[in-house]
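=== Structural record ===
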Amino acid sequence: MFSVTMSEVTKVYPNGTEALKALDLNIGPGEHVVILGHNGSGKSTLFRCMTDFENITGGYLEIGGKVPASFKKRKERSTFRRNIGLVFQHYHLTHNLSVLQNVLFGALGRQPFRKVCAPIASSTLRLEAMNALERVGMESVAGNGADELSGGQKQRVAIARMIMQRPRMIMADEPIASLDPKAGKEIMDLLVSICRENQLTFISILHQMDIALEYGERIIGLNQGEVLIDKGVPHIQRSELQKLYMSPKEQKAKWNEGLVEYGV
């Protein structure tokens, strides 16, 4: 299980946009955390920094005992990324290939390309891929083309592919944004159950308050690159979450009216 330590982390883009402002966060091994906020709050930037797709501008970031800013070799970076299972809003499947082949690609971090090609993949690897598909309820369509699937089915296949990585932490960026409510709930149920079964740290990036309250154990709320909320779900009021979607001027006005607590 991975832990996350962030101290005074900032991210400033070349155009001067300050996306993250001196964030201090600690996420323990096995925690299930939702990072919540509106578009432009900094949550996607935080996701990219935590997964080493963006470099932080300042501060200290450590994940699973590794400091991404210290990586000098491609192998260090690829090993780090292999331990983090990623689930995205878009499924990134290869649509002209079979479901089984897409799942086998999840083993690329530990196997050369030729060994994950379905016709010549080992029986052991193929069995592992079928077990991953069974875990997500998709074993019956292993031979189908990925382009034949619904959105919810594609996300399940993407999760099976992620299972093939054998990750030590799962990070999901808006994993249900493209799905209808029923399929979205099924995907969140699946992700949470996989993490609990394997004792994995789970960090999901969301913008839906109801989903965050239902599936998070702890919510970290961002607004304009700053942490406004960091609490366990049992201690959070809906009015606190609503201020994440307000501008600073609106927050202050509500505070003056006595409707919400202003600030952290």
About this structure: The chain has a mean pLDDT of 90. The beta strands are 4-12, 18-27, 32-36, 58-63, 84-88, 169-173, 201-206, 218-223, 226-232. The longest strand covers residues 18-27.
